[in-house]
Amino acid sequence: MQGFGPLDGHSLSVEGLVAIATGAADVTVDPAALTRVETRHAILQAALSHGAVYGANTGVGANRHEAAGEPSEHALRLLRSHCAGVGPEEDDVTARAAMTVRLNQILAGGSGISRRVAEALAAALHQGAVPALHPWGAIGTADLSALAELGLTLAGERPWRHGAGPITTIDATDALPMISSSALTVATAALALASVQSQLRASIVVAALSFLALRGNPEAYDPAVHEARAHPQQARVAATLHALVSGCGPAARIQDPFGLRVVPQVTAPAVHAARELGGVLTAELNAAVENPLVTDDGVLHHGQFHTATLATALDAMRSAFLPVLSLSSARLGLLMRPDLTGLRAFLAAGPPGSSGLMISEYVVQDLLTQIRVGMQPTAAGTLSISLGLEEHASFATQGARSLRTMTALAPMMLAAELVAAVRALRMAPGRLPAGLAHEAFELADKSLAADEDDRPLGPSLERAAALLPLLGEL
Questions:
Q1: Which is it for the CA torsion 323, 329, 332, 337, positive or negative?
Q2: pLDDT tens for residues 98-156?
Q3: Top-tier CATH class for 189-472
Q4: How many CB atoms lie within 10 A of CB 271?
Q5: Looking at domain 14-181, what is its CATH homologous superfamily?
Q6: What is the pTM of this model?
């Protein structure tokens, strides 16, 4: 397994989270972080004797002024009442990612949760136990329902979905701290971000192959062009493209269509948005967000559960990624045109009237439209719930899910372009220079079927989609 440092509540990265969630890295916990958890739990318990502590000896939401009943009954009643448990179950990787986020946030020391709960959660991750988590019931102000499911699973009231995790006691100072987090939202966003980053890298390589197949003009990627207007990441994307197409033959045109010419300008905002979202998520992974917050000086009630920054970063990421995908669809259209490729329409290889890759454009436009219908900014939503006490939410949860949907659909769109670019370069091999682009072509060429007569395209598209992570690592 890949080695990462122990979870300590301060240093978990998106990369480390993905490694733990996928099973590429094991889970260890910093003993000092567990000591901090123990210390803060004692402070929370002491605070109960001095007055009301939200959720520990009071009700929650609009019931915040009502004194809670017997502590042990109150804890389980709170978890049960918040456990809606509806919707499709989250997959194992997402569930493990949510467990990891929640554990690391607990180790930050602000929840006041007991050490035994933290240790039980760590043991479950180490043993490979996975809870059944249902996503619905979150609005960007804590994943109350899903985390109540996790709490009840640790308490032994719900079965583990996979494996056999530990069972522990959940008391009045554990229940609300367990669910007072957007761990599932953060996990969903982090996994989606990892996919976006890989897809962005692959999209640049695929764009370069299309450029070569279309005999593009490399002047558009010249460093001098991008130094003249230095937007974040634009010069870096252009430099990558410039290196990929270096050594290409004479350009077919003095000025190319936009699909080739503006790749740096369109890709750069998405790369920048991914970097910004990564910073936001790193903060979330290592944050003490629970309400109330337990500090060395006492207990503070607050609004840190509100994930407005994450919501806006997710909206920015989605809105910046969509143009990258639509530009890929534009390049696919260019590759279908004989006036631009010098090859047959739709890159057909069979007898006259053959359709070639015609249908791939339909596939791409279907997927692109499916993404577009979910592009409303989620941070623009409004609400009023819990007797009007909670009158605002970030809806970061919905933004994370929407980004996940984009990353699930995007590979097939990029795959369609890749299949077309490879076919065109097979038909005109003299357009492919030596270097990294040639390496990318060879990788795809070996995987994609050589028979280019009209046939079902699904298998080729699926194989091309599977190649994208490898192309992104070149």
A1: negative
A2: 999 999 999 999 999 999 999 999 999 999 999 999 989 888 888 999 999 999 999 99
A3: mainly alpha
A4: 23
A5: Fumarase/aspartase (N-terminal domain) (1.10.275.10)
A6: 0.95
